[in-house]
Amino acid sequence: MKILLSNDDGYLSPGLTALAAAMRAHGEVTVVAPDRDRSGASNSLTLENPLRATPTGPGCYKVNGTPTDCVHLGITGLMASEPDMVISGINLGANLGDDVIYSGTVAGAMEGRHLGLPAIAVSIAAFEPRHLPTAVRAVESVVRRLQDEPLPADVILNINVPDLPLEEIQGYRATRLGHRHKAEPATRTTDPRGETIFWVGPPGPAQDAGEGTDFHAVEQGYVSVTPLQIDLTRHHQLAIMADWLEGAKP
To answer: Taking the model in full, what pTM does it have?
Structure first.
């Protein structure tokens, strides 16, 4: 099995390093990751500047671009043949609910699926995790399950793992995305020259976090596995929209 790994925390992230070391026992691993932290890059592509893929070791590259750039370049430019699977992570910090809209980790997996490959995004619910081996084990378990029984071609798996010892994990839960309250306001400050600058505020706390959501599963000590799709069409609204447009004038 050929596996393409990427992330949004950068090629030196301990989450990526731990995952790459483990996945080499499952097949041929190629790592293509950003040269620095690109958290929050979402699905952005670099179109106005050239991308440089610099080798950092056997089968490993750092790229001066986004996670989406990395996966796209890995599949279409760097690898001699397509991988069998794309895995993005292990991200330091959870990607729950509305986080998936902004997450470069999830975007990397989406790019893999967009290019026709099984794709997984994985995050651990701590920015300074103590139990990365737990998240690694979760990925290995899901990968084995995908090999035994592949999922439909439009499914992306978003995995969030509690930062707990393996023996304290309660199991796996199929979950839906929860929702957060709106983000905190931007912080206004000044630079050393006295010019006004802003820092984007932190995400809001969980709002829809009841049973069945990814928030609830992780809080209860379960590995949350949420099936995502790229199609954003609100299909059940199409007929209503057609009627609504009848009143529109050219």
So the answer is: 0.90
3-state secondary structure of 228: strand
pLDDT of the residue at 71: 97
pLDDT tens profile 163-184: 999 999 999 999 999 877 676 7
- Going from N- to C-terminal start, the domains of the chain cover 2-179+207-245
Alpha carbon separation from 76 to 13, 71, 93, 105, 195 (Å, rounded): 24, 8, 29, 19, 43
Q: What is the pLDDT of residues 240-249, one digit of tens each?
A: 999 999 988 7
Strands 85-92 and 119-124: parallel
CATH architecture of 2-179+207-245: 3-Layer(aba) Sandwich (3.40)
* Length in residues, the chain: 250
Alpha helices in the chain (DSSP H): 14-23, 67-73, 99-102, 104-114, 132-148, 214-219, 238-245
CA 84 → CA 5, 135, 146, 199, 238, distances in Å? 11, 21, 11, 40, 35
